[in-house]
Amino acid sequence: MDAGEVLRLDREHVWHPYTAVPSGTPVHVVRRAGGVRITLGDGRELIDGMASWWAAIHGHNHPRLNRAARDQIDDMAHVMFGGLTHEPAVRLAHRLAGMTGLDRVFLADSGSVAVEVAIKMAVQYSGRSALLTVRGGYHGDTFGAMSVCDPVNGMHHLFTGMLPRHVFAPAPPDDYGRRPAAKSEAGPDEAYLAELTAAVEVHAARLAAIIVEPVVQGAGGMRFYHPAYLRRLRELADEHGILLIADEIATGFGRTGEMFGCDHAGIRPDIMCVGKALTGGYLTLAATLCTARVADRIGVLMHGPTYMGNPLACAVAGASLDLLAERPWREEVARIEAALLDGLAPAAAAPGVRDVRVLGAIGVIETDQPVDVAKIQDIVMGHGVWLRPFGRLIYTMPPYACTPDDVARIADAMVAATAAL
């Protein structure tokens, strides 16, 4: 089909994420993707500044990942995981356990499902049903995951009456990270540490777990917080016999400059969720990992996705982790961070800009008012860049394979977009 026909049928039948039907923002046809670029139906090439929702860390159409998929599909694309096992899943679980220090690995379909599984693990382990989290967080779109997303400023307020009510501590101060403007990084706020302590102590007797996104709050606002708050939550969990769940779906596999967000704080959670970049953006796969102590006490876990342990996804994930181990990802992420610090600096003085912040391969321009998504996208596409702003955020989480020139173009596009504010 030509691009016009694809768009016609799209308008008639397809429901896109976070939109009405028909979509209120333009939809663009993609013909192919290679390296860090996507090619549209009209021939335009755009740098994928989103790593396709933070997943394609190696870029698109990578020969190593392509080969892993082709080799695996010749053996089997899928078999049920109930009563059966296979090498790609076992190798992946062994690899993840070695990377995290968490011995038991439950392979899931998506990040939201991984969070659902983590919540079930905590409830079965403790016999309690309440969770504590912090405001400003986002953990997914399924019902258990929605219940621990920010209840006021999150995207799930329509379902508030149907969701379990958990305990929400105040949002952590977002004064961590490296800013182009001359803001020095502040130390931890002692008053906030006291607030966290009080929130846990008051509710400890009914808490199954504490769940947070380590150091970076993703879709809840792209906020960066001091690792000291995460360390304190680990201490509080230990003091009161509560599990700590780390939602590393967005932060895992190097995005923040460390392999996992928890590494900034030097702590290990009892349960960890990973996804997104796990397969390098090729196939949907996530995992919930826990300690042997947690798994042994739970016994039978009442969850079993149909596509759990999909061999094709596991094979590609294994190849993606091999590739990550071989590439100088720390240096790549550090170069992206430095380029974003330089490139986004002019936006800090722009009218309508509230803040500019950078951490690892994450660059954020926060605006005073919600942005016009279609208008911003039109501007950045004119600069040869694909971004997907939301709320009051114009942000990028590019592939690690981006060159300095690629990152400079992304930053230039973002700064140009601030002129539309």
UniProtKB/TrEMBL annotation:
<dbReference type="InterPro" id="IPR005815">
    <property type="entry name" value="BioA"/>
</dbReference>
<feature type="site" description="Participates in the substrate recognition with KAPA and in a stacking interaction with the adenine ring of SAM">
    <location>
        <position position="18"/>
    </location>
</feature>
<feature type="binding site">
    <location>
        <position position="388"/>
    </location>
    <ligand>
        <name>substrate</name>
    </ligand>
</feature>
<comment type="subunit">
    <text>Homodimer.</text>
</comment>
<feature type="binding site">
    <location>
        <position position="304"/>
    </location>
    <ligand>
        <name>substrate</name>
    </ligand>
</feature>
<dbReference type="InterPro" id="IPR015424">
    <property type="entry name" value="PyrdxlP-dep_Trfase"/>
</dbReference>
<dbReference type="InterPro" id="IPR015421">
    <property type="entry name" value="PyrdxlP-dep_Trfase_major"/>
</dbReference>
<keyword id="KW-0093">Biotin biosynthesis</keyword>
<dbReference type="GO" id="GO:0005737">
    <property type="term" value="C:cytoplasm"/>
</dbReference>
<dbReference type="InterPro" id="IPR015422">
    <property type="entry name" value="PyrdxlP-dep_Trfase_small"/>
</dbReference>
<feature type="binding site">
    <location>
        <position position="276"/>
    </location>
    <ligand>
        <name>substrate</name>
    </ligand>
</feature>
<comment type="pathway">
    <text>Cofactor biosynthesis; biotin biosynthesis; 7,8-diaminononanoate from 8-amino-7-oxononanoate (SAM route): step 1/1.</text>
</comment>
<comment type="similarity">
    <text>Belongs to the class-III pyridoxal-phosphate-dependent aminotransferase family. BioA subfamily.</text>
</comment>
<feature type="modified residue" description="N6-(pyridoxal phosphate)lysine">
    <location>
        <position position="276"/>
    </location>
</feature>
<keyword id="KW-0663">Pyridoxal phosphate</keyword>
<keyword id="KW-0963">Cytoplasm</keyword>
<comment type="function">
    <text>Catalyzes the transfer of the alpha-amino group from S-adenosyl-L-methionine (SAM) to 7-keto-8-aminopelargonic acid (KAPA) to form 7,8-diaminopelargonic acid (DAPA). It is the only aminotransferase known to utilize SAM as an amino donor.</text>
</comment>
<dbReference type="Pfam" id="PF00202">
    <property type="entry name" value="Aminotran_3"/>
</dbReference>
<feature type="binding site">
    <location>
        <position position="138"/>
    </location>
    <ligand>
        <name>substrate</name>
    </ligand>
</feature>
<feature type="binding site">
    <location>
        <position position="53"/>
    </location>
    <ligand>
        <name>substrate</name>
    </ligand>
</feature>
<dbReference type="GO" id="GO:0009102">
    <property type="term" value="P:biotin biosynthetic process"/>
</dbReference>
<keyword id="KW-0808">Transferase</keyword>
<dbReference type="GO" id="GO:0004015">
    <property type="term" value="F:adenosylmethionine-8-amino-7-oxononanoate transaminase activity"/>
</dbReference>
<feature type="binding site">
    <location>
        <position position="247"/>
    </location>
    <ligand>
        <name>pyridoxal 5'-phosphate</name>
    </ligand>
</feature>
<keyword id="KW-0949">S-adenosyl-L-methionine</keyword>
<dbReference type="GO" id="GO:0030170">
    <property type="term" value="F:pyridoxal phosphate binding"/>
</dbReference>
<dbReference type="InterPro" id="IPR049704">
    <property type="entry name" value="Aminotrans_3_PPA_site"/>
</dbReference>
<feature type="binding site">
    <location>
        <begin position="111"/>
        <end position="112"/>
    </location>
    <ligand>
        <name>pyridoxal 5'-phosphate</name>
    </ligand>
</feature>
<protein>
    <recommendedName>
        <fullName>Adenosylmethionine-8-amino-7-oxononanoate aminotransferase</fullName>
        <ecNumber>2.6.1.62</ecNumber>
    </recommendedName>
</protein>
<dbReference type="InterPro" id="IPR005814">
    <property type="entry name" value="Aminotrans_3"/>
</dbReference>
<feature type="binding site">
    <location>
        <begin position="305"/>
        <end position="306"/>
    </location>
    <ligand>
        <name>pyridoxal 5'-phosphate</name>
    </ligand>
</feature>
<keyword id="KW-0032">Aminotransferase</keyword>
